[in-house]
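Milestone 3.1: sequence recovery, worked example.
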């Protein structure tokens, strides 16, 4: 299992939200460029960048973010406001390692079908596209977690799998930003339902003990943000864990 450091951007600032609430924002006195350099210099080669403005259909950050991403040789998992097939293809073509799709996949019934055809091949879908599933009490949320989907969680997973998408970023909203532990129960349900999905856990991680617990249930990777910023998990611990994970593969 790999630890993916998270960098959330709101109004070009590095921030974290509590339970996805834009009224509960913690800002950090560090730039996106500085965070990328810090992780890269400590041996991390994959980072998770979310445009929180884009998640609300405000694309004022995008030029800045794309410029930063183009200049780094880090692998980037990127999300926030991806609303079209063309944008996904543009990002993949520009070298973004993984593009996260969320709201559009839920609100446009044909989006995933068209995206599957556009990216040509089931393996490539898994490599380039991550389907975001943001969950609160087993209800899927979207549009910056402000709207609820009527689609049942496991039905949605099954539909994505049928189209060749099998890497999922699952955020347990009830845990997010609280440093109170990861949503292990939710992830176990998903893995029990579909043991072969590539599951990326997100939300609530507060210690290396949480990381070890997620590793035991065999999630593919885990996104960690606030725990690093708040000093609960050190960048050195992230580096050592990832090095050991790579050695064991």
């Amino acid at each position: 299992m790999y630890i993916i450091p998270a960098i959330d951007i709101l109004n070009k600032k590095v921030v974290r939200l509590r339970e996805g609430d834009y009224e509960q924002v913690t800002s950090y006195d560090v730039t996106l460029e500085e965070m990328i350099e810090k992780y890269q210099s400590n041996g991390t080669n994959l980072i998770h960048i979310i445009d929180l403005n884009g998640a609300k259909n405000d694309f004022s950050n995008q030029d800045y973010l794309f410029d930063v991403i183009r200049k780094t040789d880090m692998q980037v998992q990127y999300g926030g406001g991806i609303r079209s097939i063309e944008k996904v293809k543009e990002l993949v073509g520009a070298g973004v390692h993984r593009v996260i799709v969320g709201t559009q996949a839920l609100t446009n019934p044909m989006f995933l079908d068209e995206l599957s055809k556009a990216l040509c091949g089931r393996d490539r879908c898994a490599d380039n596209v991550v389907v975001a599933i943001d969950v609160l009490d087993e209800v899927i949320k979207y549009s910056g977690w402000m709207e609820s989907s009527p689609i049942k969680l496991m039905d949605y997973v099954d539909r994505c799998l049928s189209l060749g998408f099998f890497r999922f970023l699952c955020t347990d909203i009830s845990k997010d930003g609280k440093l109170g532990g990861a949503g292990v129960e939710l992830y176990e349900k998903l893995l029990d339902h579909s043991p072969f999905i590539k599951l990326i856990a997100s939300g609530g991680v507060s210690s290396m003990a949480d990381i070890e617990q997620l590793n035991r249930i065999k999630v593919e990777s885990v996104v960690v943000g606030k725990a690093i910023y708040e000093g609960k998990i050190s960048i050195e611990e992230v580096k050592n864990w990832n090095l050991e994970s790579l050695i064991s593969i």
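The chain has a mean pLDDT of 89. The chain has eleven helices and twelve strands.
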